[in-house]
Design goal:
The protein has helices spanning about 25-40, 60-85, 90-105, 115-125, 130-135, 145-175, 200-210, 230-255, 515-530, 565-580; strands at about 190-195, 215-220, 220-225, 255-265, 270, 280, 295-305, 315-325, 330-335, 340-345, 345-365, 370-375, 380, 385-390, 405-415, 435-445, 465, 475-480, 485, 490-510, 535-545, 550-560. It has about 600 residues and is of the alpha+beta class. The strands form four sheets. Strands 4, 6, 10, 11, 12, 19 and 20 form a seven-stranded antiparallel β-sheet that branches. Strands 13, 14, 15, 16, 17 and 18 form a six-stranded antiparallel β-sheet that branches. A hairpin with a 5-residue loop joins strand 11 and strand 12 (about 370-375). The longest helix is centred in the N-terminal third of the chain and has 30 residues, at about 145-175.
Length: about 600
């Protein structure tokens, strides 16, 4: 617990105690002790302890003496280490280390979020890659050293807040300490003489202080009052909020899940692990934790700014869906927009991307349809210039009747600039002038080997490219409804007029996020209370002087000196003075009867 700065040179409570029971304490020692007691428990902060020497004390001879001494030594050191761990200084150091430890997690690719980038980093850095791997920098938040800092901070906060809470509850149940013998030694002080009786002055002061929301009571010849308990309440709330945030963060990291799914208009999605294009989760996540729901993408609507400096900027960007909760839930309609996700229990469905899926029809040499579907292509720029692949894996036979696989490299622009007006790049994101550029291959796509393959890229290592009669690469730019004929009776591919759109959804399940948000707000509220509310005590003593006239003394004490304390004491003195005014000096010259008695200013108050 931090000692209170009184503005005078004082010793701590109990300082200067007599060496023997028969030795009387000096007045200065008694004053210092009383002022220390008056300022005690203004805070529940733990006492800072210095590095100890030896806890074991004197060691008695023999094995039992050594065992007893070792036990005292170990116990003492354990207690000292615990006090250090639960001190505010160590908690701040751990919080700073936690912040530093999170920096590599933001700058270095993490295996839990992007394993491909981690492998690329290792391949590109032969020295740093293995070093980072040994240090756990590719999985910072699950590394041993980050977990150790996290757990130590958690223990530090728990060990700090529990005893402080009980101590604060004890303070709330108790009463403010009695007035020191000499109030003049306190940083804010005022006095005057009045004709009112001491008991009457104390009753007036008690009522004034309670009206000002002080906790006050009469103790012997003085009224003791205290205010500003919300400061410590805010301090404890701040620490408790940090614990809530740490628990929520840990809970969210352990049980979180995040997956992506690209859906073409007319298709649907069911929240099962096999339905995702990409999925990652926390260490304790189970597939049983997935929220049961499904939805269908009815249509995607996108409108864009047509002119001006913001040309091409989306104005409408939304996906109309129908969804149902559970296996037999009622079907409902919803619009998913950017930053306006669909929320089902603790699962949120975000709209993250959009593109086009041209519908193509592939026929063999006999005119039989072997492929007819909308093929999603990935955008390359803000004008949705897109690239992808059309793969025909089953059902196709060439002109000789041999089963083969076809692959077409596709390049799509929703707004073509026109022939001879530049490269194949879109001029606008809307479907103003759609063009599909194709080039074909035949052979083996490599999918029969069972190895994973990117659906948006062609593996042409076992394929041959179609060539025209002149021996040049067969390629064509198609408008909706146009067909590219393959050579030697190999068939054809048609760019249908039905151009669909697709939307990419991110499905996240982050338990504890609401608790983390509540903890953040509570931490801000508690920090504001601990910074802007001052804990202070006020004493009002009323005693009869040697001449029988009542002497009123008022003094205040806070955790640290502040200009507000003398000001507040002056305001309180003015209220008491109104009902117990200064007794005029009988020897002084007569004054106007209507003149008001001057209000005594508190010592140390700012001059108005």
């Amino acid at each position: 617990m931090s000692s209170t700065d009184t503005g005078k040179t004082t010793g701590p409570a109990g300082a200067g105690e007599p060496a023997g029971e028969d030795t009387p304490a000096s007045p200065e020692t008694l004053d210092a002790r009383e002022i220390g007691e008056a300022g005690s428990q203004l805070s529940t902060a733990p006492v800072e302890t210095a590095m100890p020497g030896s806890f074991g004390g004197a060691r008695t001879p023999g094995a039992l003496g050594w065992i007893a001494w070792t036990g005292r030594e170990v116990t003492g050191w354990v207690r000292w280490i615990w006090r250090q761990l639960t001190s505010m200084r160590v908690a701040l150091i751990l919080l700073f280390l936690l912040s530093l430890g999170a920096i590599p997690g933001s700058l270095i690719p993490q295996s839990g979020t992007d394993a491909a980038k981690v492998q690329q980093f290792k391949d590109a850095h032969s020295v740093l890659g293995p070093l980072y791997d040994r240090l756990g920098l590719f999985h910072v938040y699950s590394s041993v050293w980050f977990s150790a800092i996290y757990i130590l901070l958690f223990v530090s906060l728990i060990g700090c807040i529990v005893p402080r809470t009980w101590q604060f509850v004890g303070q709330l149940r108790g009463r403010p300490p009695g007035a020191p013998r000499r109030l003049t030694r306190l940083p804010a002080y005022t006095t005057w003489r009045t004709a009112a009786e001491p008991e009457q002055v104390r009753e007036i002061a008690l009522k004034v202080l309670k009206d000002k929301r002080f906790r006050a009571h009469v103790d012997k010849d003085a009224v003791a009052a205290e205010k500003g308990y919300l400061r410590e309440t805010g301090n404890l709330l701040f620490h408790l909020a940090l614990i809530v945030m740490l628990v929520a963060f840990a809970w969210g990291q352990l049980f979180k899940s995040e997956g992506d799914k690209l859906i073409v208009e007319g298709d649907g999605f069911s929240n099962t692990l096999l339905s995702y294009d990409d999925f990652k989760s926390g260490n304790l996540f189970s597939t049983d934790d997935l929220t049961p729901f499904s939805f269908d993408l009815k249509n995607f609507t996108g409108t864009y700014e047509r002119s001006g400096p913001n040309k091409g900027t989306p104005r409408t960007y939304q996906a109309a869906i129908t969804y149902s909760e559970g296996a037999y839930g009622k079907e409902r309609k919803a619009l998913v927009k950017v930053n306006e996700p669909l929320v089902i229990d603790d699962t949120k469905v975000y709209l993250t991307a959009h593109g086009y899926a041209p519908t193509v029809t592939v026929r063999d040499g006999k005119g039989k349809v072997v492929f007819h579907d909308a093929v999603p292509l990935l955008p390359l720029d803000s004008n949705v210039t897109s690239q992808g692949a059309v793969k025909v894996m089953d059902g196709y036979k060439n002109a000789q009747g041999k089963a083969e696989q076809l692959g077409f490299s596709a390049f799509f622009v929703p707004t073509f600039a026109g022939a001879g007006k530049g490269d194949m790049f879109s001029q606008f994101p809307a479907l103003d002038y759609p063009v599909l550029a194709l080039s074909g291959f035949h052979g083996s796509l490599g999918v029969d080997a069972g190895l994973p393959q990117n659906v948006y890229q062609l593996d042409t290592s076992h394929m041959k490219q179609f060539k025209d009669a002149k021996g040049e690469i067969l390629k064509a730019r198609l408008r909706p409804g146009e067909t590219m004929t393959l050579p030697d009776g190999a068939g054809s591919i048609t760019f249908d007029k039905d151009i669909k759109e697709w939307a990419n959804f991110q499905v996240t399940q982050q338990p504890g996020s609401d608790w983390a948000l509540a903890g953040a707000f509570a931490a801000i509220l508690g920090l504001a209370g601990s910074l802007f509310i001052q804990r202070r005590r006020v004493w009002v003593r009323a005693t009869a002087g040697d001449d029988g006239v009542t002497v009123v003394e008022m003094a205040g004490l806070g955790r640290s000196e502040s200009a507000k304390l003398p000001e507040e004491l002056g305001d309180l003195a003015a209220l008491v003075h109104e009902q117990a005014p200064t007794k005029p000096d009988e020897d002084a010259a007569p004054t106007d009867a209507d003149a008001e008695s001057p209000v005594p200013a508190a010592e140390g108050a700012e001059k108005q």
